[in-house]
Specification:
- The protein is of the alpha/beta class.
- 41% of the residues lie in helices and 10% in strands.
- The protein is built from 15 helices and 10 strands.
- The longest helix is centred in the first third of the chain and has 19 residues.
- The mean pLDDT is 89.
Length: 384
């Protein structure tokens, strides 16, 4: 098994989720993805806020497709097993799975970061295709092309999780970001060895790509595309079923179904349907306790700067939202790609992409009690 190629790690990670008492079967997305394999629609980018199950779905897809796994014991119990595509594709593909949120030890430069990825992938190709001459100093895309030329049936599925992780590392310069986009383009674009490229993140790719580098991707965001809207996040019916399990598991339940709606519902998909924050739902049911399971991270701290300085009266607008009043906004998802935000629309756009706000029908609002508490804490702080 390789570092990235035909690794069993995705199966191990997904098996842990599958064994959870509050597991939700999202495998139907695989049926929607399979028809795109080997077509011009094979480039898919899913952007959602953090904690909405992107990595779980990526691991599920890696576990399903990879010929380096034997995952039928799990998938024969899931919805995908009813698909006509099931037998043809389960564990039948060479899969390259890369989680871009993993850093080398003591990483202090972009070169260290990207060199590790290139080296690991070259090592995988040399190990798994020993009869093909792989030069350890050559570009990864040249090595992949040589494998495909020697073995035309060797076409790869790429599962690339958290593609945008590197953009918020302190050591990454603007020049590094351009080089990284070029790396992804050279690796994936117009390459016959690519059978499918499935990429996830929370930042939209359109703004980072100056025009043509990554324009082959079809991008699916929460605010602009209905497709996959029910896959990321828990729907009302899914939370109903989880709550029924909770009542069976807990001898002394301290949470009601309406509690879950108040605390964790409120994110709007393009279809108009609302979805719940999956991580918080699972944590609350597991702990038998309503609480704030939002974990502060880099974007939270950066966004607070604009609240603290009341940039373009954003603090005043948030005070209205804390009172339950939606605020009109022109959400432009690409605004989140730069943290030098200058007006309310840009700031609210970034908050929506990061999952702090929900956007629906031209207005932004605080989606639920969990986030309401977070914003209330921020507004209670004295401005700098």
């Amino acid at each position: 098994m390789g570092n990235y190629l035909n690794s069993a790690e995705a199966l191990t990670a997904f098996a842990e989720v599958y064994k959870s008492p509050y597991f939700v079967d999202k495998s139907e997305i695989i049926s929607e993805i399979i028809p795109r394999i080997g077509t011009t629609e094979k480039y898919i980018c899913i952007t959602r806020p953090r904690r909405f199950g992107k990595s779980v779905i990526a691991n599920m897809m890696g576990a399903f497709f990879s010929e380096g796994c034997d995952s039928e014991e799990i998938f024969r119990n899931l919805k995908i097993s009813d698909s006509s595509f099931y037998k043809e594709h389960i564990n039948k593909h060479p899969v390259i799975t890369i989680s871009f949120n993993r850093l080398p030890r003591r990483c202090s430069s972009y070169d260290q970061y990207i060199s590790r990825i290139e080296q690991n992938l070259i090592e995988d190709l040399a190990e798994i295709y020993p009869h093909i001459r792989i030069d350890t100093e050559e570009a990864v895309w040249d090595a992949l092309r040589r494998v495909h030329q020697t073995e035309p049936e060797a076409r790869f599925i790429f599962i690339l999780d958290e593609w945008d992780f590197i953009f918020h590392r302190h050591f990454v310069t603007d020049e590094d970001k351009i080089e990284y986009i070029d790396f992804l383009s050279n690796l994936l674009k117009d390459k016959t060895y690519v059978d499918l490229a499935y990429m996830t993140g929370f930042l939209p790719i359109a703004k980072y790509s100056s025009g043509s580098e990554l324009n082959m991707f079809l991008e699916y965001t929460m605010a602009s595309e209905e497709m996959f809207g029910d896959t990321f996040g828990f729907t009302e019916s899914e939370v109903d079923r989880l709550f029924d399990k909770f009542l069976t598991n807990q001898k002394n339940p301290k949470i009601t179904r309406s509690d879950l709606k108040i605390w964790y519902d409120g994110y709007s998909a393009k279809s108009g349907n609302h979805v719940y924050n999956p991580r918080s739902i699972v944590a609350a049911l597991t702990n038998n306790n309503l609480g704030n399971y939002w974990t502060s991270s880099g974007p939270y701290d950066e966004i607070y700067y604009y609240i603290d300085h009341n940039t373009d009266a954003v603090r005043d607008s948030l005070a209205l939202m804390v009172s339950g009043i939606p605020v009109r906004a022109n959400v432009r998802e690409y605004a989140a790609t730069a943290m030098n935000l200058t007006d309310r629309d840009e700031i609210f756009s970034a908050m929506t992409v990061y999952g702090f706000l929900s956007y629906e029908k031209g207005h932004v609002r605080i989606p639920n009690r969990e986030l309401m508490e977070k914003f209330d804490d921020m507004l209670q702080k004295e401005p700098s």
